[in-house]
Amino acid sequence: MKIKHNKKRNTAFVYESLIREATIATLKNDIKRKNTALSIVRRFFKSRSLLKQDLNCYRALSPHQNLNEDISEKILKEAKLHKRLLDAEGLFDEQTDLINTINKELAPNVFSNFVPNYKTLATISQIFSDTTAPKNKILLEHKIVKEMSLPRQPKEKASEIDGTVYKLFAEKFNKKYENNLLAEQKELLTHYVASFSDNAVSLKVFLNEEIARLKKGLHEAKTVKEVKGDPTMVQKTERVIARLNEFFKPPFNDEMLLTIMKTQALLKEISSDDD
């Protein structure tokens, strides 16, 4: 018999739904709702909370880790052990508090957000459940071990947060600034959208390289005849460089994103004029 999955009690699903909600709110320029969603994430998924520990158990069994099956089976065993050692009553109470907070501060429809890896999270939930029949549990564990052993997905898969999200963000920028996106702007957008689900790891790496490139380009731009001969343009260029230096400090927000995208377009224009 198929076990009904209670997604509101699936810690990983609720976490992904909140991240999704923050992303959607960003695209709609609803800063208040985005901040509310991220505030709930920070409040309930603190490092020592039971919810965060539970989330880590789910994450340990993520697919596409490029692990051999022997290692995957050992990780599965440890994840199940850690899950069993969690205070079940305490975790239930934290989940209840989280559900009530989402309903009150956001809306129940947050739980209807599309989460691409929902089926995998539901499978892991059944593995952790004491009510899953032994035979079914073994079959599900075998499936998860196989998925953990799959090769890592290419980086560009991050843009599948999904294609609609990326498209909406790109359209928003194009409408506001009336230009086509450059390749470097598309790459920045991809990392920014992905940052809501990977703790901004890929975004930070990209920004380190991209900001360094922009600063170097702007310093070189000051030697271009049209810029060098205009003290106002030199001063503005120096202000942009100083502003970019501030972007290494978290958190990275929408205003910073647009500033970098405009700087990318400006540098491209200066380079084209120079050529």
Q: Residue-averaged pLDDT, rounded?
A: 84
Rg over CA atoms, rounded to whole Å, is 23 Å
Our estimate of the beta-strand percent is under 5%
Number of strands: 0
What helical percentage do the residues reach?
55-70%
Helical/strand content category: mainly alpha
Number of helices: 13
Low-confidence stretches: 155-161
What is the terminal-to-terminal distance?
69 Å
H/E series, N to C? Answer: HHHHHHHHHHHHH
Number of domains: 2
Overview of the molecule:
With 275 residues, this protein is an all-alpha fold. The chain has two domains: 7-153, no CATH class; 156-274, no CATH class. The chain has 13 helices and no strands. The protein has helices at 11-27, 31-44, 50-60, 69-85, 88-105, 118-128, 134-148, 163-177, 183-194, 201-221, 225-228, 231-246, 254-274.
Keywords:
mainly alpha
Give a short synopsis of this structure.
Helices cover about 70% and strands about 0% of the residues.
SSE diagram, text form:
Elements: H1 11-27, H2 31-44, H3 50-60, H4 69-85, H5 88-105, H6 118-128, H7 134-148, H8 163-177, H9 183-194, H10 201-221, H11 225-228, H12 231-246, H13 254-274
Helix pairs in contact: 1-2, 2-5, 3-4, 4-7, 6-7, 8-9, 9-10, 9-13, 10-12, 10-13
